[in-house]
Amino acid sequence: MRRFFLLVIISASSFLLSEETDSPRPSLTRKYMQRNWTSPKYMSGDWGGVRDLLESKGILITSSFVTECVGNPTGGATQGFTYTGSFGVNLDIDFEKACGITGFGFFISGAWRSGNSLTGEKIHNQFAVQEIFGGETAKLNELFFKETVKDWFEIKAGRLNALNDFLISPLYCQFLNLAFCGNPSSILYNTAITDYPFAEWGAYMHFKPFDMLTIKTGVYNGNTIVNQNKYHGFNFTFSSTNGAQWLTEAKFSFSRSSNFYSNYTVGFFYQVANTQIFADGVGSDPGYYFQIDQTIYDGLSSFLAMIFQPKDRNLMPFFVSSGLVWHGIVPDRQHDALSFGFAYGSYSPDLGTGQTFEALFEANYWIQVNQWLSVIPDFQWIIHPKGTNLPSAFCVGFQMGFVL
User: Is 2.40.160.60 the CATH number for 68-403?
Assistant: First the structure.
């Protein structure tokens, strides 16, 4: 069974990556690319022109479905294979186009997740090997109003995913593991700060005083109860279990051209109340982070992220992730990417559990089949699962994504 699974992945990758030969007959890759990159950017097309008409009136409807199927033929607590899926739908209304209110907008989104976690059921590690697992039900996600002034100022308020706006990089979700996508993940284990598809009441603002500087700040309600599946995202209470969650960051961006850039980010976050202190009692919980995205060579980018928090009250007080993403490494496949990543998180010695660290390596190849379909064969090596003596796990699988 394991050999068959590996053979299917390798065969599919070989077909989609086939290169042009010296034969006078045109390559399948080039013909396939030419045909599919002139196809609609949505799987369902433009709905007979209705979609384009709505967009011209300021109404943008988008949806997507992503599945991640991963198995661990070796290591972990036991071996197995699981499927998990995530369907999302968004409605974005631009009131400037719809009725002339300059810069004003409304956004609402929902998610429906299903499946089982290989990490939770088989490997028993910390960094989930399928990042789309979590909140396995249909639920309301974000719901907010926003005001935008060109590209230098935005404010929004309502039900928000805090980590949609902080600790982000376009390079992170080239990977399947939650340690990378969508944010460096230790902040999720240590605080009540929310990410997709779990939303909380909050307010967010960013502005660009200079072209090279972006400043962001946001405050969110910290409640670990309202996102339970039984509420389906409709628990709108303002009560709090952990007080306010405050995040702020500054990003410095430099570019020599559209293909060469550098981003340097420093951020601070603060959970006001009810963080358990291991020795005794509860208190607040500060933390800070650094991020770097850097072009190394045309198409080749690197990233580094580090998070620090006090060890007397956080499960994982230190986390680091780093990686390389190379777009266009195969001729005629400029939208594809080869990616390598490493992540490491150390457990607090104050826990008293004897847990030390968990680390992982991930490698994959993003195949952008056409504008609405991507396929990613993926390999992960999980070292020291949950900082215990469990055997290191080798994982193999794929992600398939559809823009509907």
Answer: no
